[in-house]
Design a protein that fits this description.
The protein is α/β, with parallel strands linked by helices. The chain has helices spanning 16-27, 85-101, 114-121, 128-136, 161-167, 170-188, 213-227, 244-247, 258-268, 304-321; strands at 5-8, 33-37, 48-50, 64-68, 107-108, 142-146, 151-154, 194-198, 231-236, 252-255, 274-278, 284-287. A 12-stranded mixed beta sheet has the order 3-4-2-1-5-12-11-6-7-10-8-9, sandwiched between helices.
Length: 322
Protein backbone atom coordinates (compact mmCIF):
# COMPACT_ATOMS: atom_id res chain seq x y z
CA UNK A 1 0.00 0.00 0.00
CA UNK A 2 1.10 3.54 -0.72
CA UNK A 3 0.06 6.71 1.06
CA UNK A 4 -2.80 8.51 -0.76
CA UNK A 5 -1.91 11.08 -3.38
CA UNK A 6 -2.62 14.77 -2.79
CA UNK A 7 -4.61 16.27 -5.67
CA UNK A 8 -4.30 20.06 -5.73
CA UNK A 9 -7.15 22.16 -7.04
CA UNK A 10 -5.01 24.38 -9.26
CA UNK A 11 -6.81 27.43 -10.62
CA UNK A 12 -10.40 26.85 -9.45
CA UNK A 13 -11.84 28.88 -12.34
CA UNK A 14 -10.25 26.39 -14.74
CA UNK A 15 -10.96 22.72 -15.32
CA UNK A 16 -8.79 21.47 -12.44
CA UNK A 17 -11.59 20.76 -9.94
CA UNK A 18 -13.86 19.01 -12.46
CA UNK A 19 -11.16 16.77 -13.93
CA UNK A 20 -10.01 15.83 -10.41
CA UNK A 21 -13.55 14.69 -9.57
CA UNK A 22 -13.99 12.88 -12.89
CA UNK A 23 -10.62 11.12 -12.58
CA UNK A 24 -11.31 10.07 -8.99
CA UNK A 25 -14.66 8.58 -10.04
CA UNK A 26 -13.12 6.80 -13.01
CA UNK A 27 -10.36 5.20 -10.94
CA UNK A 28 -12.82 4.23 -8.15
CA UNK A 29 -10.24 3.67 -5.45
CA UNK A 30 -7.67 1.90 -7.64
CA UNK A 31 -5.43 4.87 -6.85
CA UNK A 32 -5.75 6.18 -3.27
CA UNK A 33 -6.08 9.96 -3.33
CA UNK A 34 -7.63 13.00 -1.70
CA UNK A 35 -8.36 16.52 -2.90
CA UNK A 36 -7.11 19.77 -1.38
CA UNK A 37 -9.14 22.88 -2.13
CA UNK A 38 -12.37 24.68 -1.40
CA UNK A 39 -15.25 22.17 -1.65
CA UNK A 40 -17.54 25.03 -2.71
CA UNK A 41 -15.54 25.22 -5.94
CA UNK A 42 -16.26 21.61 -6.92
CA UNK A 43 -18.89 20.85 -9.57
CA UNK A 44 -22.42 20.99 -8.11
CA UNK A 45 -23.04 17.25 -8.47
CA UNK A 46 -19.85 16.23 -6.66
CA UNK A 47 -20.17 13.67 -3.92
CA UNK A 48 -17.49 14.36 -1.33
CA UNK A 49 -16.72 13.89 2.35
CA UNK A 50 -14.48 15.93 4.58
CA UNK A 51 -11.25 14.57 6.04
CA UNK A 52 -8.81 16.17 8.45
CA UNK A 53 -5.91 13.79 7.83
CA UNK A 54 -4.77 11.90 4.69
CA UNK A 55 -5.06 8.66 6.70
CA UNK A 56 -8.83 9.12 6.51
CA UNK A 57 -8.85 9.03 2.70
CA UNK A 58 -10.59 5.67 2.49
CA UNK A 59 -12.67 4.90 -0.59
CA UNK A 60 -16.42 5.47 -0.27
CA UNK A 61 -17.65 4.66 -3.72
CA UNK A 62 -17.70 7.85 -5.80
CA UNK A 63 -17.49 10.12 -2.75
CA UNK A 64 -14.20 11.99 -2.96
CA UNK A 65 -12.26 12.67 0.25
CA UNK A 66 -11.56 16.40 0.57
CA UNK A 67 -9.10 18.15 2.85
CA UNK A 68 -10.83 21.54 2.86
CA UNK A 69 -8.87 24.71 2.21
CA UNK A 70 -11.33 27.63 2.21
CA UNK A 71 -10.83 30.36 -0.39
CA UNK A 72 -11.86 33.99 0.21
CA UNK A 73 -14.02 34.27 -2.93
CA UNK A 74 -16.61 32.15 -4.66
CA UNK A 75 -15.70 30.71 -8.03
CA UNK A 76 -16.80 31.74 -11.53
CA UNK A 77 -15.68 29.13 -14.07
CA UNK A 78 -13.62 30.75 -16.79
CA UNK A 79 -12.90 33.88 -14.74
CA UNK A 80 -9.93 33.72 -12.32
CA UNK A 81 -10.34 35.88 -9.24
CA UNK A 82 -7.21 37.71 -8.02
CA UNK A 83 -8.37 37.39 -4.40
CA UNK A 84 -8.08 33.60 -4.68
CA UNK A 85 -4.51 33.58 -6.00
CA UNK A 86 -2.81 33.34 -2.60
CA UNK A 87 -5.00 30.37 -1.67
CA UNK A 88 -4.01 28.51 -4.85
CA UNK A 89 -0.39 28.87 -3.77
CA UNK A 90 -1.19 27.79 -0.20
CA UNK A 91 -2.82 24.59 -1.48
CA UNK A 92 0.35 23.68 -3.39
CA UNK A 93 2.48 24.39 -0.33
CA UNK A 94 0.18 22.27 1.82
CA UNK A 95 0.30 19.33 -0.60
CA UNK A 96 4.10 19.45 -0.82
CA UNK A 97 4.42 19.55 2.98
CA UNK A 98 2.23 16.45 3.24
CA UNK A 99 4.29 14.66 0.58
CA UNK A 100 7.57 15.56 2.25
CA UNK A 101 6.31 14.30 5.60
CA UNK A 102 5.23 10.99 4.06
CA UNK A 103 1.55 11.60 4.80
CA UNK A 104 0.90 11.83 1.04
CA UNK A 105 2.42 9.44 -1.47
CA UNK A 106 2.97 12.21 -3.98
CA UNK A 107 1.46 15.37 -5.44
CA UNK A 108 -0.73 15.47 -8.55
CA UNK A 109 -1.18 19.11 -9.42
CA UNK A 110 -4.16 20.68 -11.11
CA UNK A 111 -3.20 23.27 -13.75
CA UNK A 112 -2.53 26.80 -12.54
CA UNK A 113 -3.00 30.13 -14.32
CA UNK A 114 0.35 31.88 -14.01
CA UNK A 115 -0.91 35.34 -14.91
CA UNK A 116 -3.68 35.12 -12.30
CA UNK A 117 -1.10 34.19 -9.66
CA UNK A 118 1.22 36.99 -10.73
CA UNK A 119 -1.58 39.56 -10.73
CA UNK A 120 -3.16 38.43 -7.48
CA UNK A 121 -0.22 37.23 -5.38
CA UNK A 122 2.96 38.52 -7.05
CA UNK A 123 3.92 34.94 -7.91
CA UNK A 124 7.66 35.14 -8.53
CA UNK A 125 8.24 31.86 -10.39
CA UNK A 126 8.08 31.15 -14.14
CA UNK A 127 5.77 28.22 -13.49
CA UNK A 128 4.65 25.33 -11.35
CA UNK A 129 7.86 23.34 -11.77
CA UNK A 130 10.18 26.08 -10.54
CA UNK A 131 7.95 26.73 -7.51
CA UNK A 132 7.92 23.04 -6.62
CA UNK A 133 11.71 22.91 -6.91
CA UNK A 134 11.89 25.84 -4.49
CA UNK A 135 9.53 24.16 -2.02
CA UNK A 136 11.47 20.90 -2.23
CA UNK A 137 14.86 22.55 -1.81
CA UNK A 138 15.95 20.97 -5.08
CA UNK A 139 18.61 22.33 -7.39
CA UNK A 140 17.96 21.79 -11.06
CA UNK A 141 14.95 19.65 -11.94
CA UNK A 142 13.90 18.13 -15.23
CA UNK A 143 10.54 18.12 -17.02
CA UNK A 144 9.60 14.76 -18.48
CA UNK A 145 6.53 14.25 -20.65
CA UNK A 146 5.49 10.63 -20.46
CA UNK A 147 2.93 8.19 -21.83
CA UNK A 148 2.73 4.42 -22.20
CA UNK A 149 4.58 4.61 -25.50
CA UNK A 150 7.10 7.43 -25.10
CA UNK A 151 9.05 9.44 -22.54
CA UNK A 152 10.73 12.68 -23.62
CA UNK A 153 12.82 15.26 -21.78
CA UNK A 154 13.66 18.65 -23.31
CA UNK A 155 17.12 19.85 -22.23
CA UNK A 156 16.06 23.47 -22.77
CA UNK A 157 12.45 24.36 -22.16
CA UNK A 158 10.56 27.65 -22.44
CA UNK A 159 12.99 29.79 -24.41
CA UNK A 160 13.02 31.12 -27.94
CA UNK A 161 14.50 28.83 -30.57
CA UNK A 162 17.10 31.52 -31.31
CA UNK A 163 18.36 31.21 -27.72
CA UNK A 164 18.70 27.41 -27.62
CA UNK A 165 22.24 27.23 -29.02
CA UNK A 166 23.61 29.56 -26.34
CA UNK A 167 21.68 27.91 -23.51
CA UNK A 168 22.73 24.38 -24.47
CA UNK A 169 25.97 23.72 -22.59
CA UNK A 170 27.88 20.59 -21.63
CA UNK A 171 27.00 21.17 -17.98
CA UNK A 172 23.29 21.50 -18.76
CA UNK A 173 23.29 18.37 -20.89
CA UNK A 174 25.21 16.34 -18.29
CA UNK A 175 22.79 17.41 -15.56
CA UNK A 176 19.79 16.54 -17.73
CA UNK A 177 21.15 13.07 -18.49
CA UNK A 178 22.00 12.40 -14.85
CA UNK A 179 18.65 13.56 -13.45
CA UNK A 180 16.75 11.67 -16.13
CA UNK A 181 18.66 8.43 -15.53
CA UNK A 182 18.29 8.72 -11.76
CA UNK A 183 14.56 9.35 -12.13
CA UNK A 184 14.07 6.38 -14.45
CA UNK A 185 15.84 4.16 -11.94
CA UNK A 186 14.16 5.45 -8.78
CA UNK A 187 10.66 6.24 -10.04
CA UNK A 188 10.19 3.85 -12.96
CA UNK A 189 12.10 0.81 -11.72
CA UNK A 190 14.55 0.67 -14.64
CA UNK A 191 17.89 -0.58 -13.32
CA UNK A 192 19.85 0.35 -16.47
CA UNK A 193 17.76 2.90 -18.36
CA UNK A 194 18.49 3.31 -22.04
CA UNK A 195 18.53 6.96 -23.06
CA UNK A 196 18.65 8.21 -26.65
CA UNK A 197 20.10 11.68 -27.19
CA UNK A 198 18.78 13.76 -30.08
CA UNK A 199 20.96 16.04 -32.16
CA UNK A 200 20.32 19.76 -32.36
CA UNK A 201 20.60 20.24 -36.12
CA UNK A 202 18.76 18.53 -39.00
CA UNK A 203 20.14 15.02 -39.60
CA UNK A 204 22.20 15.47 -36.40
CA UNK A 205 24.40 17.90 -38.30
CA UNK A 206 25.20 15.41 -41.08
CA UNK A 207 28.87 15.21 -40.15
CA UNK A 208 29.21 18.94 -39.74
CA UNK A 209 27.58 19.90 -43.02
CA UNK A 210 24.55 21.40 -41.22
CA UNK A 211 26.10 22.51 -37.96
CA UNK A 212 28.83 21.17 -35.70
CA UNK A 213 27.05 21.17 -32.31
CA UNK A 214 26.80 17.39 -32.41
CA UNK A 215 30.58 17.08 -32.96
CA UNK A 216 31.78 19.77 -30.57
CA UNK A 217 29.22 19.45 -27.74
CA UNK A 218 26.73 16.60 -27.78
CA UNK A 219 28.93 13.65 -28.82
CA UNK A 220 31.69 14.47 -26.28
CA UNK A 221 29.12 14.65 -23.46
CA UNK A 222 27.68 11.29 -24.52
CA UNK A 223 31.15 9.70 -24.62
CA UNK A 224 32.08 11.11 -21.20
CA UNK A 225 28.90 9.86 -19.56
CA UNK A 226 29.09 6.48 -21.25
CA UNK A 227 32.44 6.07 -19.50
CA UNK A 228 30.62 6.76 -16.23
CA UNK A 229 28.26 3.85 -16.91
CA UNK A 230 25.25 5.57 -18.44
CA UNK A 231 23.56 3.64 -21.28
CA UNK A 232 23.37 6.30 -23.97
CA UNK A 233 23.13 6.42 -27.75
CA UNK A 234 23.31 9.34 -30.16
CA UNK A 235 23.35 12.02 -31.20
CA UNK A 236 20.42 10.86 -33.33
CA UNK A 237 18.65 12.65 -36.13
CA UNK A 238 15.36 13.69 -34.51
CA UNK A 239 13.31 12.99 -37.64
CA UNK A 240 13.96 9.23 -37.36
CA UNK A 241 13.89 8.94 -33.57
CA UNK A 242 10.19 8.62 -32.82
CA UNK A 243 8.71 6.02 -35.19
CA UNK A 244 7.42 2.76 -33.70
CA UNK A 245 10.53 0.63 -34.29
CA UNK A 246 12.88 3.32 -32.97
CA UNK A 247 10.82 3.69 -29.78
CA UNK A 248 11.59 0.08 -28.89
CA UNK A 249 15.32 0.83 -28.60
CA UNK A 250 15.24 3.27 -25.66
CA UNK A 251 13.43 4.09 -22.44
CA UNK A 252 13.53 7.86 -22.86
CA UNK A 253 14.72 10.53 -25.28
CA UNK A 254 16.54 13.70 -24.32
CA UNK A 255 15.71 16.36 -26.87
CA UNK A 256 17.54 19.62 -27.29
CA UNK A 257 14.60 22.03 -27.27
CA UNK A 258 10.92 22.29 -26.37
CA UNK A 259 9.14 21.46 -29.64
CA UNK A 260 11.59 18.71 -30.57
CA UNK A 261 10.32 16.86 -27.49
CA UNK A 262 6.71 17.96 -27.23
CA UNK A 263 5.55 17.55 -30.82
CA UNK A 264 6.07 13.75 -30.84
CA UNK A 265 4.58 13.17 -27.36
CA UNK A 266 1.53 15.31 -28.11
CA UNK A 267 1.08 13.60 -31.46
CA UNK A 268 1.17 10.13 -29.90
CA UNK A 269 -0.61 10.89 -26.62
CA UNK A 270 -2.42 14.22 -26.86
CA UNK A 271 -5.10 13.33 -24.28
CA UNK A 272 -3.08 10.98 -22.07
CA UNK A 273 0.38 12.54 -21.73
CA UNK A 274 1.64 13.27 -18.23
CA UNK A 275 4.01 15.97 -17.02
CA UNK A 276 6.50 14.48 -14.52
CA UNK A 277 9.04 16.52 -12.57
CA UNK A 278 12.25 14.56 -12.01
CA UNK A 279 14.81 15.60 -9.42
CA UNK A 280 12.39 16.51 -6.63
CA UNK A 281 12.54 14.81 -3.21
CA UNK A 282 8.85 13.97 -3.64
CA UNK A 283 6.74 12.65 -6.51
CA UNK A 284 4.98 15.18 -8.70
CA UNK A 285 2.89 14.55 -11.79
CA UNK A 286 0.40 16.73 -13.59
CA UNK A 287 -1.92 16.60 -16.59
CA UNK A 288 -0.14 17.76 -19.71
CA UNK A 289 -2.49 20.66 -20.40
CA UNK A 290 -3.51 24.04 -19.02
CA UNK A 291 -6.52 25.51 -17.26
CA UNK A 292 -8.76 25.54 -20.36
CA UNK A 293 -10.74 28.53 -19.11
CA UNK A 294 -12.86 28.53 -22.27
CA UNK A 295 -14.53 25.21 -21.39
CA UNK A 296 -14.37 25.37 -17.59
CA UNK A 297 -17.66 24.56 -15.86
CA UNK A 298 -19.27 23.15 -19.00
CA UNK A 299 -18.77 19.50 -18.04
CA UNK A 300 -16.93 18.65 -21.25
CA UNK A 301 -13.30 18.64 -20.07
CA UNK A 302 -11.50 15.36 -20.81
CA UNK A 303 -10.06 13.88 -17.58
CA UNK A 304 -7.83 11.33 -19.37
CA UNK A 305 -4.56 13.15 -18.68
CA UNK A 306 -5.48 13.55 -14.99
CA UNK A 307 -6.34 9.85 -14.81
CA UNK A 308 -2.94 8.96 -16.27
CA UNK A 309 -1.19 11.47 -13.99
CA UNK A 310 -2.73 9.77 -10.96
CA UNK A 311 -1.89 6.29 -12.23
CA UNK A 312 1.69 7.29 -13.00
CA UNK A 313 2.18 8.97 -9.61
CA UNK A 314 0.92 5.83 -7.86
CA UNK A 315 3.25 3.65 -9.94
CA UNK A 316 6.18 5.94 -9.13
CA UNK A 317 5.30 5.82 -5.42
CA UNK A 318 5.30 2.02 -5.51
CA UNK A 319 8.67 2.04 -7.29
CA UNK A 320 10.19 4.35 -4.65
CA UNK A 321 8.71 2.23 -1.90
CA UNK A 322 10.21 -0.91 -3.42
Amino acid sequence: MIAPLALTCGEPAGIGPEIAVAAYRQLRGAVPAFYIGDPDHLPPDTGWHEITDPKQAATRGDSMPVLPHPFPQSNRPGHPTPENAASVIEVIERAVALAQSGAAGGVVTGPIHKKALQDGANFAYPGHTEFLAHLGGAGRVVMMLASDGLRVVPATIHIALADVKQALTASLLCDTIRITADGLQRDFGLSHPRIAIAGLNPHAGEGGAMGDDEITLIAPVIAEMQQQGYVLTGPHSADTLFHAAARQTYDAVIAMYHDQALIPIKTLAFDTGVNVTLGLPFIRTSPDHGTALDIAGKGIANPSSMVEAMRMAASMARARQA
